[in-house]
Amino acid sequence: MIGGGMGAMHFASAIAALVLGAMVLGASKGTVFHRTIGAGFVAAMVILNVSSLAIYRLTGHFEPFHGLALLSLATLARGIVPALRRRPGWLMAHYWNMAWSYVALLAAASSEIVVRLPRAGTFTSPWHVVGVGMAIAVLFVGLGVVVLPRLRRTAMARVAEQSPA
User: Fold this and answer.
1) Residues with Cβ within 8 Å of residue 138, at least 6 apart in sequence
2) How many CB atoms lie within 10 A of CB 152?
3) pLDDT > 70: what percent of the chain?
4) What is the Cα–Cα distance from 44 to 15, expressed in whole angstroms?
5) Nearest CA to 79 among 125, 42, 31?
6) Which of 21, 51, 71, 149 is deepest in the core (most CB within 10 A)?
């Protein structure tokens, strides 16, 4: 069901990214722990996305999920580069891009679960699977639009508490 070595690497990095991303969300921001676990999250996401670009089992060619993997890599870069450079406004760029990266990961994981559930004939073609996966991605974008601004306030308050006066 995993589909060989590439599929196993993809699956393992997905599980690692889900766990590490949840840990980063719950961690105090700006700490060594946050940076260390965050680096692990980024590494897992890079492996996950690069491995996904090598998997063509569903349709046999480039499909929307590959495009989303490229978008995910771009989002990661847009979240990490500002944190490394620390120029004015970096914190918001880092927060928004890393938060959206995790929302996209949750969307992909949900899509994967839904399309792999036994559905006796529900998905009669690979493009049905793509359609369901894309619908779930749209649902998560809507969820992110509602939830992320609220989480941002909490994250920024934590950072403000840790900053020296």
Assistant:
1) none
2) 14
3) 77
4) 9
5) 42
6) 21
